[in-house]
C-alpha cells in the first residue's frame, strides 16, 4: 500500500497503480487522451501531466506509478499552463470544424479544450492537409486530419483482438494513420475503435452524420445478438434507434461489443414490423385490435383438449414472457408439449465476446421452465404435426419454420403466433399478436453464464407517453475507473422532454405492440385463469418466488450491472 | 286627425335626425380620438372614411347574437330596449327651435310641448338606470353585475346634484318649461348667472352618461366591458346607440339650460327674419353649440383618467351636493334681495 | 422631497402630494383646463400612421424578421452544414435539422431543415450561434398561414440568396 496526497487529499492505494488511476479512485479526473483502462500505456498525448513534489519536471500521470509519500498537484499553475500548451499543440493541425464533426458532443478534445484550453490560437499558418473520408473497411470512415495520434485504435487491434490492422506511417506533422498495405479493417470487433477514438477521426459509416449526440436519448439495455448479453446503450431519436454503443460492464463485455451487435437495431426500425395484431379472415391476415385478436385466440384454444396443443417459447423473449408462457401451458392449457428452439451457429464463436448461441435468453428460457421433459420437445412436436396429433400450435416470438416440411405441416393446424417482424410462421398464422421487440419492452435476459440483466423501453409503443418511462438523469456523473466520460450524461434529450404531438420531430411512429407476457395474461384470463400482473416486475417477482435459481433476485438488485443466478 | 299626422311625422323626423347624428358621432369620435393619439382613425370606407358608420351598422346587424346559457332571457332582451327607449324618450320634450309656419299653420319644433318638461327629463333620465341594472343582473356574469351595481350607485348619487344644479336655473329663469328657460336667456345666458350651477351640471351629466372620467360601470381594465359584457349583435348596438343618444341629449340640455339654447351669442340674428328661415337657423345654432359640448366630451375622455370608486362617491356626495345646495341658497337669497 | 436614483445619478425630484398643492391646484378646474388644452393641441400634431397594405414599412438592417437560410452566391448551395447548433440554442425548439452526407467540401448538409414558425419567437439566437453565417434574420415580417402544417417552413421557403440579404450580412459583420 502506498499513501499519497493528491490535491490535498490523502489516500492509501494499492502499490503499482498509476497516479491517474489513483486519482480516479478518489474522484479526481485527470484529463487524458491516449490512456484507456483496457489498453497498454502509451504516454504519447502528454495531456495528463501533473506536478509531483521533488520531481524536477512535470510527470505524466498515466505512466508514473505511485510511491509512498508522493504529493501530487493536478490543478497547479504549472499544470494548467502545460495543459494549455499541449492542447494548443494538438489543435495546431486539428481542424476546427466541430459543427461538421460527428464526434461533437462526446469529443474528449472538444471537452478538454473547453475546460482547460487556452481559448485562442496563435497559429496563423496553413494547417496540414491529409486524406479525408478514407473508407477503412465496411463500417468505418477515417478522417486523418482530425487524428491526434493517440494510438488507441492501433493498440486495440494489437492487444485486445490481437489482429493488427492499423498503424502510423511518416513522422511529425505528416504522420498518417493507415491500414497495412492492401488490408482493410474488417475485424468483427473493429467498430470499437470508433468508441475509443477520443476525437472524430474514426466514424461509423452507418451512423455518420445521422444525428447529433445531444439530440438522442440513451437508454440502458442488453444486446440481443448472442448469449453473451453485452451491455449497451440504445440511442433513440423520434422513436427510432439510430445506433447502439457498448455500456461498460467489467463482468460481461468490459468496454466492448461486436460489430454484429451494433446492427441488431435494424429489425426494430424495419418496414416488415408487425404494427397491429392480426387475425386471418378468408385466408388473409387483416389488422385488428387487441380485444378481437385475444378473443379469437381464446376461442381457438377453448375447443382443444390438453395435449392437442403444442406451445413454443423463445430464446429471444424475456424470462418474464417465457415464465408466463409455460405457466399458461401447464396450468391453463394443460399440455405437456412445451419447448423452445435453439439457434446455435456452430463455429461462429470466439474466446472474446461472440457466442455460437445467437439468442440472448436460451438459458433463461430453460431455467424458467420452457423445456421438454421426458420427450415432449421440439422434435416430438414436429413428429406430432406429422401424425396430425395437434390441432393448435402456439408460438411465441420465434420462427419455427426451419424447413419446407414444417411450413406445409402448419397448414393442417391452427397457428397462434407472437411476432415482432413478418416471417414464415406468421404467414401460416391464424392469429398474430404484434409483439414488442427488445427495445419496446421491459424485462430480463439471462446470459449463458447465468447473469440476469435488464432491458428497458427505448422505443415507445402506442399508449405509452415519455413521462411514464424516463427519469431525467444526473449530469456530470463519471463512473470510476473507466476513464471515459459517461455518455448517458446526455441520456434524456431536450427534444424528447419537450416535444408535443404537433412537433414533427416528436411524432415518430408508435406501433401498437405489447409485451408477450401481457398478451398471454389476456388470453389466459379469457380461458378462465386469474392472472393479475400489472407489470413485468410483478411477473419477475413471481419468478423469484417460484424458480429456485432466481431466488432473492429483484429488478432493484439487477440494476444496471445485472446479477448472477443461484447455481447451487 | 291632422295634428296626429303631424305629430307622427315630427316624431319620425326627430328620430331620424338623432339616429343620423349619433351615427356621425361614432365616426367623429373615432377620428378625433385617433388625432389626439397621433393616429388617423377610420379612413378607408368612402372619402375620409365617411361611410364607416354605415359599414359599422351593417356589421353589427349581421353579427351573431350570443345569449349566455344561464342568462335570464327575457330581462336580457328587455334591458337594451329600456335603455334605448329612455334615451329616445328624453328628447320628446326638448325644443330645438321655435316654430315653423307652413300654410299659415304654426308647427312647434318640439315633439311634446309639455309645461313640466324639466321634471319629465329628470324623471326619465333616472329610469335609464333600469336598463343598465337589468342588463347586469340578467347576464349572470360577475363583471356585468359589478358594472350594473356601480352604475346604479353612480347614477343615483349624481342625480341629486344634477337636479339641484338646475334649481338655480329655474330660479333665475322663473319657469320650468324648457322653451321658456331658453327664451329667458335671449340677452344673458344662464352660465353667467349660474357658473357654479353650470359646472355642477356638466360634471353630473358626464357621470349620468357614464363617460370618462366616470365610466366605472364599463371600466375595461377591471370589468371586461361592465354591464354589456355579455351582449353582442344588435343588442349591443342598442346600448351603443343609447349611449351616444344620451350624449347628444345631454349636450343639448347643457346648451338649453346654460348656453342660451338657439340664441346666437351677443347678436340678435332672428328679429325681422322669415320665421321658417329663423327656425332653421335656430336648429343649426342649437346643434352647433351642442356639438361643441360633445367635442368637450371627447377632449375630456382623452385627458382625464378614470376616477376610483371612492373618489367618485366622495366627489358626488361631499363636493357636488353641498356646492349645489349652497348654490340654490345663494341664488334664492339674491333673488329675494334684488 | 424624495431622493430617487436613476442611472446611478442621484436626482432630486419634487413629488407633489396633496399637502403641498396651492389653492389654484386644489380647485382642480384650472388644471383640468391645462390638460384639455394639451389634448386639444395634440389634434393638430403630425400623424405617424403607416397606411399599411398600401405603404409598407422598410425595416432597418437590425430588424429581426423571419429566419432564412443563406444560399451562397458563389457555390449556389446553402451555407448550412447542419451542425444543429441553431436547433440546440433555440429556446422555443422551433428548428429541426436532419443532416446527411454530401460530396461537397463541407461534407454534411441539411437534408431537412424546418422551422416551425408557430414556435419561433424571433429572438435571433440561431443567427448568433451559427458558425457559418448560414441562418440569418430576414426583413420579412408578413407571415400568414391557415394550418399548423403550413406554419412549418421547409428548405423550399427558407433558402434565400445571399444577395438579397446583403443588408443583414453587412450589419452582422459590423456588429461582430
Count of folded domains of chain B: 1
- Beta content of chain B comes to under 5%
Task: Label the structural class of chain A.
Answer: alpha+beta
Helicity of chain B, as a percent range: 55-70%
Structural class of chain B: mainly alpha
- Residue windows where pLDDT falls under 50 for at least 5 positions of chain B: none
Largest pleated sheet of chain B: 2 strands, antiparallel
Rg calc of chain A: 27 Å
How much helix, percentage-wise, in residues of chain A?
25-40%
Instruction: Output the number of helix runs of chain A.
Output: 18
| Spatial ordering of strands, largest sheet of chain A | 15-14-20-19-18-16-17
Q: Taking all residues together, what is the mean pLDDT of chain A?
A: 89
Q: Low-confidence segments of chain A, ≥5 residues, pLDDT <50?
A: 473-490
Which key phrases capture this entry?
heterotrimer; A: 568 residues; alpha+beta; Ubiquitin-like (UB roll); Rossmann fold; seven-stranded mixed beta sheet; 18 helices; 23 strands; 25% helix; 17% strand; elongated; C: 176 residues; Alpha-Beta Plaits; three-stranded mixed beta sheet; 8 strands; 24% helix; translocase (chain B)
Structural write-up:
Chain C: Its main location: membrane. Chain C: One of its GO terms (cellular component) is plasma membrane. The complex is a heterotrimer of chains A (568), B (338) and C (176). Chain A is α+β, with helices and mostly antiparallel strands and 568 residues long. In chain A, 25% of the residues lie in helices and 17% in strands. In chain A, the strands form 6 sheets. Chain A has a 7-stranded mixed β-sheet with strand order 15-14-20-19-18-16-17. A 5-stranded mixed β-sheet of chain A has the order 2-1-5-3-4, with helices on both faces. A 3-stranded antiparallel β-sheet of chain A has the order 6-7-10. In chain A, a hairpin with a 4-residue loop joins β6 and β7 (140-142). Chain B has 338 residues and is mostly helical. Chain B has one domain. Chain B has helices spanning 2-36, 52-62, 73-90, 117-138, 142-173, 178-183, 190-193, 195-208, 220-223, 233-258, 275-301, 309-337, and strands at 99-102, 105-108. The longest helix of chain B has 35 residues, at 2-36. Chain C is an alpha+beta fold and 176 residues long. Chain C folds into 2 domains: 2-42, no CATH class; 67-175, Alpha-Beta Plaits. In chain C, a hairpin with a 2-residue loop joins β1 and β2. Chain C starts with a strand and ends with a helix. Chain A binds chain C through residues 98-100, 104, 132-133, 208-212, 214-215, 494-495, 498-499, 502-505, and chain C through 81-85, 87-88, 93, 96, 98-101, 106-108, 114, 116, 118-119, 131-132, 148, 152.
Amino acid at each position: 500500500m502506498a499513501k499519497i496526497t493528491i490535491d490535498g487529499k490523502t489516500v492509501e492505494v494499492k502499490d503499482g497503480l498509476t497516479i491517474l488511476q489513483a486519482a480516479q479512485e478518489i474522484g479526481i479526473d485527470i484529463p487524458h487522451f491516449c490512456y484507456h483502462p483496457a489498453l497498454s500505456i502509451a504516454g504519447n498525448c502528454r495531456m495528463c501531466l501533473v506536478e509531483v513534489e521533488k520531481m524536477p519536471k512535470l510527470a505524466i500521470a498515466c505512466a508514473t506509478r505511485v510511491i509512498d509519500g508522493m504529493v501530487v498537484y493536478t490543478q497547479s499553475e504549472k499544470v494548467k499552463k502545460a495543459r494549455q500548451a499541449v492542447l494548443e499543440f494538438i489543435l495546431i493541425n486539428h481542424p476546427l470544424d466541430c459543427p461538421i464533426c460527428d464526434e461533437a458532443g462526446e469529443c474528449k478534445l472538444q471537452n478538454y479544450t473547453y475546460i482547460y484550453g487556452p481559448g485562442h490560437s496563435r497559429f496563423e499558418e496553413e494547417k496540414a492537409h491529409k486524406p479525408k473520408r478514407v473508407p477503412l473497411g465496411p463500417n468505418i470512415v477515417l478522417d486523418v486530419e482530425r487524428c491526434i495520434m493517440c494510438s488507441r485504435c492501433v493498440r486495440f487491434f494489437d492487444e485486445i483482438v490481437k489482429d493488427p490492422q492499423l498503424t502510423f506511417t511518416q513522422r511529425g506533422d505528416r504522420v498518417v494513420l493507415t491500414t497495412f498495405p492492401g488490408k482493410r479493417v474488417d475485424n468483427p470487433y473493429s467498430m470499437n475503435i470508433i468508441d475509443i477514438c477520443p476525437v472524430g477521426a474514426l466514424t461509423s459509416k452507418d451512423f455518420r452524420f445521422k444525428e447529433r449526440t445531444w439530440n438522442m436519448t440513451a437508454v440502458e439495455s442488453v444486446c440481443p445478438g448472442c448469449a453473451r448479453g453485452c451491455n449497451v446503450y440504445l440511442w433513440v431519436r423520434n422513436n427510432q434507434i439510430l445506433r447502439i454503443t457498448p455500456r461498460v460492464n467489467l463482468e460481461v463485455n468490459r468496454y466492448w461489443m461486436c460489430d454484429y451487435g451494433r446492427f441488431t437495431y435494424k429489425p426494430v426500425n424495419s418496414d416488415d414490423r408487425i404494427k397491429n395484431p392480426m387475425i386471418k379472415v378468408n385466408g388473409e391476415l387483416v389488422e385488428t385490435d387487441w380485444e378481437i385478436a385475444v378473443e379469437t385466440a381464446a376461442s381457438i384454444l377453448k375447443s382443444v383438449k390438453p395435449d392437442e396443443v403444442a406451445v413454443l417459447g423463445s430464446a429471444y423473449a424475456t424470462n418474464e414472457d417465457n415464465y408466463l408462457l409455460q405457466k399458461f401451458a401447464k396450468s391453463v392449457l394443460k399440455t405437456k408439449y412445451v419447448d423452445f428452439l435453439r439457434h446455435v451457429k456452430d463455429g461462429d464463436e470466439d474466446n472474446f465476446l461472440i457466442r455460437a448461441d445467437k439468442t440472448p435468453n436460451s438459458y433463461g428460457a430453460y431455467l424458467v421452465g420452457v423445456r421438454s421433459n421426458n420427450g415432449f420437445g421440439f422434435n416430438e412436436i414436429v413428429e406430432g404435426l406429422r401424425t396430425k396429433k395437434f390441432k393448435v400450435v402456439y408460438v411465441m416470438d420465434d420462427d419455427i419454420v426451419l424447413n419446407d416440411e414444417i411450413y406445409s405441416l402448419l397448414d393442417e393446424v391452427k397457428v397462434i403466433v407472437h411476432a415482432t417482424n413478418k416471417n414464415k410462421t406468421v404467414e401460416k398464422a391464424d392469429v398474430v399478436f404484434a409483439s414488442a421487440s427488445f427495445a419496446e419492452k421491459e424485462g430480463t435476459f439471462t446470459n449463458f453464464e447465468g447473469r440476469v440483466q435488464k432491458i428497458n423501453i427505448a422505443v415507445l409503443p402506442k399508449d405509452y407517453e415519455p413521462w411514464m418511462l424516463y427519469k431525467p438523469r444526473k449530469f456530470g456523473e463519471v463512473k470510476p475507473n473507466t476513464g471515459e466520460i459517461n455518455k448517458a450524461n446526455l441520456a434524456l434529450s431536450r427534444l424528447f422532454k419537450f416535444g408535443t404531438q404537433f412537433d414533427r420531430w416528436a411524432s415518430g411512429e408508435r406501433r401498437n405492440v405489447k409485451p408477450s407476457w401481457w398478451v398471454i395474461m389476456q388470453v389466459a384470463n379469457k380461458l378462465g385463469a386469474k392472472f393479475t400482473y400489472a407489470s413485468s416486475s410483478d411477473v419477475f417477482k413471481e419468478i423469484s418466488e417460484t424458480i429456485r435459481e432466481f431466488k432473492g433476485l429483484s429488478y432493484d438488485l439487477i440494476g444496471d450491472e445485472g446479477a448472477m443466478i443461484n447455481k447451487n | 286627425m291632422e295634428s296626429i299626422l303631424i305629430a307622427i311625422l315630427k316624431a319620425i323626423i326627430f328620430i331620424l335626425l338623432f339616429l343620423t347624428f349619433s351615427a356621425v358621432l361614432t365616426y367623429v369620435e373615432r377620428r378625433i380620438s385617433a388625432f389626439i393619439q397621433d393616429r388617423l382613425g377610420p379612413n378607408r370606407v368612402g372619402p375620409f372614411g365617411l361611410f364607416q358608420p354605415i359599414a359599422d351598422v351593417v356589421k353589427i346587424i349581421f353579427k351573431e347574437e350570443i345569449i349566455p346559457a344561464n342568462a335570464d332571457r327575457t330581462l336580457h332582451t328587455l334591458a337594451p330596449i329600456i335603455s334605448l327607449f329612455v334615451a329616445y324618450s328624453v328628447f320628446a320634450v326638448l325644443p330645438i327651435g321655435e316654430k315653423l309656419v307652413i300654410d299659415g299653420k304654426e308647427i312647434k319644433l318640439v315633439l311634446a310641448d309639455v309645461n313640466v318638461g324639466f321634471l319629465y327629463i329628470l324623471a326619465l333620465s333616472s329610469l335609464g338606470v333600469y336598463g343598465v341594472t337589468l342588463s347586469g343582473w340578467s347576464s349572470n356574469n360577475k363583471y356585468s353585475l359589478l358594472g350594473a351595481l356601480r352604475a346604479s350607485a353612480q347614477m343615483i348619487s349624481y342625480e341629486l346634484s344634477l337636479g339641484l344644479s338646475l334649481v338655480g336655473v329655474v330660479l333665475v329663469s322663473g319657469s320650468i318649461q324648457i322653451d321658456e328657460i331658453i327664451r329667458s336667456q335671449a340677452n344673458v345666458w344662464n352660465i353667467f348667472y349660474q357658473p357654479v350651477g353650470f359646472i355642477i351640471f356638466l360634471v353630473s351629466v358626464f357621470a349620468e352618461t357614464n363617460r370618462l372620467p366616470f365610466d366605472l360601470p364599463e371600466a375595461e381594465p377591471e370589468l371586461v366591458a361592465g354591464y354589456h359584457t355579455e351582449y353582442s349583435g344588435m343588442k349591443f348596438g342598442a346600448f351603443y346607440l343609447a349611449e351616444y343618444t344620451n350624449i347628444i341629449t345631454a349636450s343639448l340640455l347643457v346648451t338649453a339650460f346654460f348656453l342660451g339654447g338657439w340664441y346666437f351669442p351677443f347678436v340678435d340674428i332672428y328679429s325681422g327674419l322669415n320665421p321658417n328661415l329663423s327656425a332653421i337657423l335656430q336648429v343649426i345654432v342649437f346643434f352647433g353649440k351642442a356639438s361643441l359640448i360633445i367635442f368637450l366630451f371627447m377632449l375630456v375622455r382623452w385627458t382625464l383618467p378614470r376616477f376610483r370608486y371612492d373618489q367618485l362617491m366622495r366627489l358626488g356626495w361631499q363636493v357636488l351636493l353641498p356646492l349645489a345646495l349652497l348654490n340654490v341658497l345663494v341664488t334664492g337669497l339674491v333673488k329675494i334681495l334684488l | 422631497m424624495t431622493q430617487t436614483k436613476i442611472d446611478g445619478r442621484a436626482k432630486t425630484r419634487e413629488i407633489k402630494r396633496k399637502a403641498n398643492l396651492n389653492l389654484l391646484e386644489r380647485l382642480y378646474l384650472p388644471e383640468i383646463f391645462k390638460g384639455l388644452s394639451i389634448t386639444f393641441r395634440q389634434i393638430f400634431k403630425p400623424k405617424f400612421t403607416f397606411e399599411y397594405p398600401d405603404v409598407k414599412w422598410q425595416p432597418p438592417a437590425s430588424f429581426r424578421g423571419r429566419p432564412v437560410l443563406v444560399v451562397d452566391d458563389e457555390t449556389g448551395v446553402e451555407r448550412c452544414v447542419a451542425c444543429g447548433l441553431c436547433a440546440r440554442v433555440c429556446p422555443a425548439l422551433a428548428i429541426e435539422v436532419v443532416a446527411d452526407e454530401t460530396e461537397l467540401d463541407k461534407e454534411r448538409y441539411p437534408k431537412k431543415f424546418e422551422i416551425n414558425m408557430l414556435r419561433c419567437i424571433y429572438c435571433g439566437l440561431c443567427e448568433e450561434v451559427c458558425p457559418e453565417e448560414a441562418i440569418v434574420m430576414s426583413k420579412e415580417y408578413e407571415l400568414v398561414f391557415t394550418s399548423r402544417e403550413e406554419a412549418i417552413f421547409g428548405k423550399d421557403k427558407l433558402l434565400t440568396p445571399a444577395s438579397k440579404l446583403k443588408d443583414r450580412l453587412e450589419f452582422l459583420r459590423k456588429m461582430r
